[in-house]
């Protein structure tokens, strides 16, 4: 695959191929990394996953984005492809098979009922479809027996599905332990072979570009990038691999035990091939260095907001909306802001449950991404209706990421009510920095890293996660004296360090260290 002449003309320092396992458009960290690397003189091509079967291409500044379709033939568990003789001998091979047989049995009995009714009915066509009661005795008995047989097998299929859901049955635990014992860090091949689908989707695209640096965003792309780097090195090209750890894999939510064990093994197998690591917080950097016995501490590239958006972004975007106007309130009405997704572990229920005890306070939930709604939003809307606070809880759409601080600055305080989860404990989220650049007093739950930062800077109050009464206390404290908390932002250099422009410099330093013969542009 050849690059266009404009891309070739920009290639002055080296070619960087970035990899991410999403569609790019809603991943601000990946977008910012691609743009800033290209602005620093690197020739950047960012590969992501197509939302359909088509290839998509566009540019983020001078960085090119290519989305490729990912077939998922290995996404199914192997047990779905074979008969479950040891668990439920009578179960069907799959739910779809059981549903088909159930429907076929119903269709047979329906047809026999039709033929019986046609015998007694007057009118055209009766003779061609009818069947006398005597002629239908054997078929009706057969259909009844068949329906009961199919029902029995369908029930066994449902029980089989339930036992397989979390892969915790004795046979699953034994199989998982066997693969771990036999294959160690290679066990993911048997436990979660769907990871091959990512490798087979991206491999030839990466190889065609012959990158100097592969920047693998997060754990799935680490393996894809490592394998591509090894192929390049074997071909005589000194390819460098940068591992960008967005999350702590052992702390991820796992649908079943096998999923987590497989992804930990996948990461451990491929980390040794990385030439450099970066991550999102000092806390996570320390943990990764310890867990993977890294020679150097990963560089920290914070999820900080862009302060100087590109001219084309400014030209394409709508003006920054007026937050209070969208909420239908005046400048004197107390207003809390929350930005981000809605799911059970984000703690948004705490915000809503507190509103009856904060009768004058309004809340803006900036939580509707373009073109979709978070599934859990419906439950929040039901809670709002149940508590009768619909006139004070305002659900609003996202704005472009570079507009968030200005958009939120009209609020009186901002809220981050995350629950205690390993990855929540380790990160400083996008919203933390966006709230800070809006110069808002913060109300944050006592998750480790963020709470420690808020207590250190004095920019807000900390409350016990999932404790509505303690949350109410914290909100009342910041609304009673917001100026006290806003003063924290006057500390010289604080906000300047929390910008993507500064983080982009860190990223460029990582690249430059790997390729010291590629001087920075003028």
Features:
23 helices, eight-stranded mixed sheet, disordered N terminus
- Proportion of β residues? 5-15%
The global form is globular
Oligomer: single chain
> So how many helices?
23
Give, in spatial order, the strands making up the sheet with the most strands. Answer: 3-4-2-1-5-6-7-8
First-last Cα distance:
30 Å
Overview of the structural elements:
The protein is globular and about 95 Å long. Helix 8 packs across helix 9 and helix 14 packs across helix 20. The model is unreliable at 1-11 (pLDDT under 50). The chain has helices spanning 5-10, 28-39, 95-120, 126-129, 137-164, 170-183, 188-191, 195-209, 218-234, 257-270, 282-292, 311-316, 323-327, 348-354, 377-387, 404-408, 422-426, 430-437, 448-457, 468-480, 482-486, 494-497, 500-514, and strands at residues 15-19, 43-49, 56-60, 63-68, 213-217, 240-245, 276-279, 299-300, 335-339, 362-368, 393-397, 413-416, 442-445, 460-463. The chain has an eight-stranded mixed sheet with strand order 3-4-2-1-5-6-7-8, sandwiched between helices. The protein has 23 helices and 14 strands. By secondary structure, the protein is α/β, with parallel strands linked by helices. Helices cover 47% and strands 13% of the residues.
